Amino acid sequence: MEGVIPMKKLFLLMAAIFMAFTLGALDDAQAGTDLGGVQIHGFISQGFLYTDTYNYLANDTKDGSFEYNEMGINFGKQLNDKLRIGMQLFSRDLGDAANNKVTVDWAYADYRWQDYLGLRAGRIKLPIGFYNETRDMDMLRTSIVLPQGIYNDLLRDNMIAANGVSLYGNVGLKAAGSLEYQLLAGVTQADVDNGVGKYTNSGLAPLGGTLDGDIKSDTSYAGALRWETPLKGLRVGYSIINSPFIQVPVRFGAMPLEIDASRNVQIYSAEYTWRDLIVAAEYMIRKDESTIMGLTTSTTAESYYLSAAYRFVDWFTLGAYYSEFYPNKDHKDGDNLAIANNAWEKDLALTLRFDINDYWIFKIEGHAVNGTANVLCSDNPGNDFADSQWYYGAAKLSFSF
Q: How far apart are CA 110 and CA 167, in angstroms?
């Protein structure tokens, strides 16, 4: 269901957002607008990235880059007490990836039989971690860039949703709080012209390889449990996605080959809200296995972070996080690599968020990074990656309704 819409459709998307804003009578009682019973919401974010040593996230950030934006508009209609339908169109730019192609981000029918049992069918957001389903909505969090060890922006298009079905619900546990669950089976899609293709090609380049077609996958299975504990403001969660068969066509010189791969990602999450303070932590373990020409290799990646955000006044929030990412947790010191600091990425981030009004938000963010595990060689040709310590900054202006 995720298809690329021609570029001229981008103008229709922007026009629709403008119409929703101007026709919607955006008052304090209701965000978005209602046209004939159809609820319409949308957002536009424009950002700026700058790095001092390496191009990061985008291909030209050492010179400063405005090629960093997201925009989306979604439509939903309640057909009866139990059935709702909706969809979202989405577009983003991240340097030389995505380039504002408009895609169907999610689109499904949702039948909620009881609080404890509902069914969705269509293109469904993957409930991976606490923030994957809302990662594009800049207004819902303090930070600009989420911890990249878990929420890698280049892999966003492959991890955001799957075409399939899901069961979900919320079960009351009386004095023990409540338990929300979701089980999903579906097919994820990887647009090789997007960030996934760029990320894969960068990994193949040192071996002399390149992608040679579309990445294909069979059914993936995902699940999530989120427990609202008896302690007010505390929730904990566990999520998993298992992709047992991924086929990657590659070419080494004149030789075409296929890599058969599998991936299993598990994330443990916790979040505590107390008045104007939000503290969160997540831990991810990712197991990858690949087979090429009968040779099988496997690696286990590890990432975790701790974040905190405090809203001092209605218009100002200060946030920070510290994260670590290891592509191979068995070689955290880089003893198996020619460039040791490619074995880790440790990121200390500080964010200032300014809520201008109900619809406009401005943020500025700085990162002190140690390690180059997520720095792509394709974005930094000729760089020897000798500097382990480096910095980058981001700014973003967002409008939502």
A: 10
Q: For residue 127, what are the CA distances in angstroms to 40, 209, 241, 246, 335?
A: 23, 33, 9, 20, 35
Whether residue 1 is contained in a domain is answered as: no
Q: What one-character-per-residue DSSP string does 178-211 give?
A: EEEEEEEEEE--B-TTSHHHHHHHHHHGGGTEEE
Let me know if residue 2 belongs to a domain. Answer: no
From the CB of residue 293, how many other CB atoms can be counted at a distance below 10 Å?
8
**Tokens found for residue 32:** 């978005």
Cα distance between residue 155 and residue 191, in whole Å: 10
Q: What is the pLDDT of residues 75-134, one digit of tens each?
A: 999 999 999 999 999 999 999 988 898 999 999 999 999 999 999 999 999 999 999 999
3-state helix, strand, coil in the chain (%, to 5): 15, 55, 30
At position 169, the amino acid (one-letter code) is G
Residue 127 has phi, psi (to 5 degrees) of -85, 60
253, amino acid identity: G
* Residue at 4 is within a domain: no
Q: Which residues form the domain of 270?
A: 9-400
How many CA within 13 A on the CB side of residue 396? 31
Residues 214, 156, 74, 171: is their CA dihedral positive or negative? positive
**Is the model's pTM score more than 0.85?**
yes
Number of domains in the chain: 1
Distance between CA atoms of residues 395 and 147, nearest Å: 16
The contacts of residue 120 (CB under 8 Å, 6+ apart) are 108, 109, 110, 111, 165, 166, 168
Q: What is the CATH number of the domain that holds 229?
A: 2.40.160.10
Condensed to tens digits (0 to 9), the pLDDT of residues 134-163 reads 998 899 999 999 999 999 999 998 899 999
Q: How many CB atoms lie within 10 A of CB 338?
A: 8
Rounded to the nearest 10°, the torsion over CA 273, 305, 167, 246 is 170
Nearest-angstrom CA–CA distance, 202 and 107? 31
Residue 340 lies in a domain: yes
